[in-house]
Amino acid sequence: MIRIVASIGNFREDLRFAARQFRRAPAYAVFTVLVLALGIGTVTAMFTISYSVLLRPLPFRADRHLFKVVESTAKGDEGFGVSYPEITQWQQATGDLADVGFAWSSVNIINAPAGAEMISSVAASPNLFTLLGVEPVIGRSFLPNEANSDHLNVVLLSYDIWQRSFAGDRNVLGKTVHIGTTLCTIIGVMPKQFRYPLDDIRAEVWVPSERSTLVPRPDDPYGSPWGPIVRLHPGVRPQALESVLAGVHSQFVKSDIPNRVRLLHLHDQLVREVRPALLALEIAVGIVWLIACSNVAGLLLARVAARRTEIAVRSALGASRRRMVAQFLTESLLLSIAAAVSGLGIAALILRIFRHMLAAMLPMAQNIHLDWSIFAGLVVLTLLTALTFGTVPALLAAWAGTEAGLRNSGRSQTGDRRHNRARAVLLVSEVALSIALLTGAGLMMRTMYALRHVPLGFRTDHLLVTSLTAPGGLYNDQNIGAKAWQPLLDAVRQLPGVRDAALSTVMPLKHPVEWQTIVYKTNWTEGDVDAVVRAASPGLMEVLGIRMHSGRFFNLDDTPTSIPVAVVNRVFVDRYLGGGDALGKQFRYGRKAATVTVVGVIDDIHQDTLTDASRPEFYLCTPQIARDNPLYLAIVSKYMELAIRIEVAPGAMVAQLRRQIAEVNPHLAIGEFSTMSEAVEDSIGAQKLAAGVVGVFGGLALLITLAGLYGLLSYMVEQRTREIGIRMALGADRVAVISMVMRQALLLMALGAAAGVCIAFWSNHLLHAFLYGVTASDPWTIALAPLGLVLCGLAAAAVPARRAASLNPVEALRAE
Fold first, then answer.
1. pLDDT of 374-392, one tens digit each?
2. Buried b / exposed e across 88-119, counting CB within 10 Å, b at 16+?
3. pLDDT at 73
């Protein structure tokens, strides 16, 4: 007990002494805290992101028992979803093993008090929320009988749309709202942080699946692809459930290709694509933190050398080495605590700046926030930081010689040489780690340059795009093309400033959804294949600026009564039509095997992303897709995208376009307008984020390293003042003195550069998923990064070198 009380007393004395030391050297304290705060702040922000996405449990009851069901082929290709009849069979067959829930998302319109709005409407099984263990914040969830046809239509609102469209009215329960053309009664509002745990579904309203007008025929075995989630009952092994599901699945497979059913842990499934990226960013942040700690350790070593007399006096008066170590570690801890407080603010600022990007790119991004678990991690990081940068200086101070510290000639003693070697090792480490980050930043800059110079195959200038949604069921008895889409096009084309306009189910790089269909075996293919199918109005190629390779695009002569035609891309021709001249060739597509004739071939364009190669695709003429065509309901009847080539500034047209569309057809919901240039930027969001983060970290690492180099050389020049004075007194000129200092700087950077290149060869492979147009081992980048750092280092070293050369020999010797 006495020892504990004594230790506490000693610690309090050490804290007071450390505070007095920092008051005597405020510039040193502020700079040290700032450098540490940058390192701790970036680590805290990255830890918050990684912990929230990779480690934090999902906000569902017993989430470790939740699994996603994936159907895959022998080649490993995963299916897009499961048919409704198969899921209902799963529910019946797995009653004693698991609970099976499911959902399916579609685009629709809500006519709320704030006006008509395009929304993502999700049809969910009535047991889904019970399975997840989630309850509405107000109201209730679905009842089992609300799936029956004789029950009223009900709807659950997401928290966001409740706030946005209903002004957060807590009396919203029992009110009615139109979802499409269906009048629904509001029964509840979901929690603010709730998101359906499948990354391709963003729900704004929820309706019971069997009652949903979004699913016209749930008994159709080829119908909408449902996303199933299962909750295993306690004690049930995933392998046992897989065998039961596979047995049911075999009854629905109509293919010679062997399929299998797998259970993937829901959390692992959500984060599997972002895990490598987060790992790469964690390493980058860790490097910045190590560089900051190394830099501060170098500063502490300089402080130890400057306080050699004080240390020697305390040692001579009986202070033990353990007591000396405790004193210096206390100073390090105090610095680390101050830096942690500042770093917490930096972390919050980083999360705020990147919040929009994180929400767009990461699953369950709503979980990213600072909480007590992050604060606990910050405490550990604070202690680790203090030990990392404070241990070596504390040990060197405790083992410094008492006699050397009491002599005026102490500057040239062994202790100082030991300090200098330690600082040199730390600086070499900083240079090596900085080069690893700088090469990564260089690779990402090369990637961004390559992406911005990719031939898109279409024009992005003066092009506005938006999405349009028609209420489900509104045009069931009439052709929506003639009734809605063509009048809208005619009205938009008449606006001043509009050069032309066209419609398509999918615009390049802009689409939230995509449709594929079967293309049956032809004379040029060995079997049935899949291809992307799009519907478009005449004039789309002219509006987008896509070049026709041969033939023509759709025109006004392509009517419902004329020969069905199609336009294909060159990949489609080469892969499915035997190459060569494709004009006049025919192929069959779709479940009812419709036949079309190829009248044109377009050049390949980047439809999905700038990094993906073009896929086989064909266009159908919108007026020719009749209501009895299976693709009519899927790709024409509800959702289209509008492209408008304008002659004025985009901002001047948006309000006018909205008014014109609303006047022509007030039933349509209009999405956000954006330029095609913005769509291109959005398509490289992952690379932009990686480039920005790695670039910022590389810049921080460079600045901290250059500050460390400047500090080390300045201190060495101060230590060698007497030696430099003697050299100059014996005839050494300014050039010789400058060369001496610069050689020392160049040696340190050369050693760091050699180690940094080795680290870069390993670490750059972590960026492989983000790179485009450059390899992880690109020799030019790996060579230029060290060269750039060396040049910057020499510029930083020039200041202390010139200071050394400007010393007056007489004053230098007199000072000693």
1. 888 888 888 888 888 777 7
2. bbbbebbeebbbbbbbbbbbbbbbbeeebbbb
3. 57
Most confident of 191-195, 220-224, 512-516, 571-575: 571-575
> Residue 561 has which token pair?
């009564």
Task: Indicate the residue type of 487.
Answer: P
Give the 3-state DSSP-derived string for 411-472, with helices as H, strands as E and coil as C.
Answer: HHCHHHHHHHHHHHHHHHHHHHHHHHHHHHHHHHHHHHHHHHCCCCCCCCCCEEEEEEECCC
566 sits in which H/E element: strand 565-569
| pTM for the whole structure | 0.71
Cα 763–764–765 angle (5° rounding)? 90
Only one residue has tokens 């995933």, namely 238
Rounded Cα distance, 617 and 791, in Å: 51
What 3-state DSSP class applies to 548? strand
Map 76-135 to HEC letters: CCECCCECHHHHHHHHHHCCCCEEEEEEEEEEEEEEECCEEEEEEEEEECCCHHHHHCCC
Spatial distance between the Cα atoms of 34 and 17, rounded to a whole number of angstroms: 21
| Burial per residue of 19-37, b for 16 or more beta-carbon CB atoms within 10 angstroms, e otherwise | eebbeeeeebbebbbebbb
What residue type is assigned to position 389 of the chain? F
Tell me, what DSSP letter sits at residue 154? Answer: E
DSSP secondary structure of 617-677:
EEEEEGGG--TTSHHHHHHTSSEEEEEEEESS-HHHHHHHHHHHHHHH-TT-EE---EEHH
- Nearest residue to 303 via CA among 427, 389, 377: 389
Q: Environment class of residue 550 by beta-carbon count within 10 Å: exposed (0-12), middle (13-18) or buried (19+)?
A: middle
> Distance between CA atoms of 227 and 219, rounded to whole angstroms?
16
Q: Measuring CA to CA, which residue among 158, 155, 232 is closest to residue 195? A: 158
Three-state secondary-structure class, residue 506: coil
Residue with tokens 């016209």: 216
From residue 648, give the alpha-carbon distance in Å to each of 75, 424, 644: 50, 61, 11
With 0-12 / 13-18 / 19 or more C-beta atoms within 10 angstroms meaning exposed / middle / buried, residue 171 is exposed
If DSSP states are collapsed to H, E and C, what string results for 481-496? HHHHHHHHHHHHHCCC
